[in-house]
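Worked example

This section walks through a single chain of length 227. The input is the sequence exactly as stored; nothing has been trimmed or padded.
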Amino acid sequence: MKSIVPLLQNIPLFQELKEEDLVGIAPLFTDKKVKKGTILFKEGEVGEEMYLIHSGVVKIYRLDESKEVTLALFRDGDFFGEMSLLSNGMTRSATAETMAASTMYVLSRTAFTSFMEKSPRLCLKLLETTMQRLRHANDQIYDLTFLGVRSRIIKTILRLSEQHGIATPDGLLIDVKLTHQQLANLVGTVRESVTKVLQELLDDELILIDKKLITLINIEGIQAEIR
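Given that input, the structure is written out below as tokens.
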């Protein structure tokens, strides 16, 4: 499992650990390969594991009266489920499902707890990371409450470009394939609204769309849309 060490070095939760600490924690992970559409855990289940994505895409979502609301998308190098490491018996606040065939590393709470007792720095980093994600959740709640649908869609596109953007000759490519419905689930709206706004951004030559991949070709122009 030493091959996981370079991956851990790029994850905020583990970045402050020394290399010998990372070598020590690496064997605590187990590898897991899953197909597209696999439910890793469901909302309401007791959580006992954190997941680290080596390759693939995972969506975190909740069902609100049978309507799916996507809370986050995670891909290569991201981690999720870390709240389960903080407290025994804590239930999952959302469901995790793979959007592509994925390979990941899994860390159980039991294994992590014994290691964390030897590393107060890691404990503090876990709390810091959790607070950052709670602040992000609060931002999402604010957007859903006070922003119109068009602004929410544009802010979501900008946020995805920050999280998954790759510089290309054409612009900043969001390296996650998303259907209009999947983007609507992220925004908390209907597919028709997403289709309308994306077409407007295309007509204004602010974005390109090719095979479900969005490229931002005028970021300043897009940012100006929500000011």
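What to look for: The chain has a mean pLDDT of 88.
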